[in-house]
Specification:
Rossmann fold, globular, 176 residues, alpha/beta, single chain, five-stranded parallel β-sheet, binds adenosine-5'-triphosphate, binds beta-nicotinamide ribose monophosphate
């Protein structure tokens, strides 16, 4: 039995993330999806809480027909020292043998900690990119087709779009 780890902030969970999960599950039997920066929420870069992100990921995977027996979703807070982060993750997570990531720092830290890493391909990165989706939410462009349908409905339901717009307004006021 081989278990992989897929770290990300998932702000929000989009169709590129979904493709990575499916791609990884072709290579390992189970996947631990690490919701990173779990202490963060209500900011421009991290608008959603860890709990909201956990719900989004489960909804997206359910919609795609990925069995819940194939994955864990675990939120993990950041630590001040990058050098100990991989060990910190090992303490919080079910045991894993391999890490899937494209983030260079994540790849480096796990490699240095002696964990095997594999870089998934970029799936339509110019479209499937959380920074772009957050910008589209703020500017009112149509972002519906960039995330799983249930994730879109969830974000609208929790008024996540309004939250992001409001954070943007207060951020501008504070920066004057
Ligand atoms: N479209 C994609 N194809 C392949 N990998 C992706 C894609 N989008 C994100 N990833 C990878 O998934 C992991 C988690 O990504 P993350 O949650 O940061 O999403 P992101 O779209 O890069 O968001 P942000 O722009 O907020 O950083 C990272 O390793 C990232 O490189
Ligand atoms: N020192 C640390 O706590 C540390 C180091 C590297 C990555 N991380 C986290 O791993 C996650 C990586 O996800 P992204 O690829 O979405 O940035 C982020 O939540 C990031 O904060 C944390």
């Amino acid at each position: 039995m081989l278990r992989g780890l897929y770290p990300g902030r998932f702000q929000p969970f989009h169709l590129g993330h979904l493709s990575v999960v499916k791609w990884a599950l072709e290579r390992v039997d189970e996947l631990v999806i690490l919701v990173g920066s779990s202490q963060e929420s209500h900011t421009l870069v991290n608008p959603f809480t860890a709990g909201e992100r956990v719900e989004m990921i489960r909804l997206g995977l359910e919609e795609a027909g990925v069995s819940s027996s194939k994955y864990f979703i675990i939120p993990i807070p950041d630590v001040l020292m990058n050098s100990v982060w991989a060990y910190h993750v090992k303490l919080y997570s079910p045991k894993f043998e391999k890490v899937f990531a494209r983030n260079p720092l994540v790849l480096r830290l796990f490699k240095e900690a002696g964990v095997e890493v594999e870089e998934p391909p970029a799936f339509n990165r110019e479209k499937y990119n959380s920074t772009l989706i957050r910008k589209m939410i703020i500017t009112g462009e149509n972002w519906e087709n960039l995330v799983p349908e249930k994730v879109y409905k969830y974000i609208i339901n929790i008024k996540g779009d309004e939250r992001l717009k409001e954070i943007t307004r207060s951020d501008k006021i504070l920066n004057y």
